[in-house]
């Protein structure tokens, strides 16, 4: 029996690239599937080539495959609902911003790290991987677990892997997965459009 495909394509007010409209953040990962290493490498390469102020590249990534000690450390730092599902992902990626360099603040580091994560996400989706970014984790625990210096700040954790079978998920998870995709209208987002 084949797994039914979920069509989560965004209904947009203006045309956007298919890879953007079709990308969505699942919480249901195949807990048995291994990562497609070529697709993961391409996503990391896309992150590497994200725009960056003055070519400073103030981001790093912790890449942890399911079953590794690093993966277990990240799972143990997840908070709330994230802890109940994210461990099924084949890979967890922590995006880390270099917020200071040589004693000087890198004020654009958070933005640039977000760019790297976004490029990773789009490339991963284009290569058939599912992703979900999370802010609900203990940043201090991640920093301690991976011995990050004070110059580096964990920003987000991204679950990456193969989409799981929604039919095996709890009722609560199925409701979340099937909920309508919504975004604030452009008119409420753009402060000035002169």
From TrEMBL:
Pfam families in the record: Nitroreductase
Sorted UniProt keywords: Oxidoreductase
Superkingdom to which the source organism belongs: Bacteria
Nitroreductase domain span: 21-80
Residue ranges of the TM segments: none
Entry similarity comment: Belongs to the nitroreductase family.
Protein name, entry field: Nitroreductase family protein
Lineage: Bacteria, Bacillati, Actinomycetota, Actinomycetes, Micrococcales
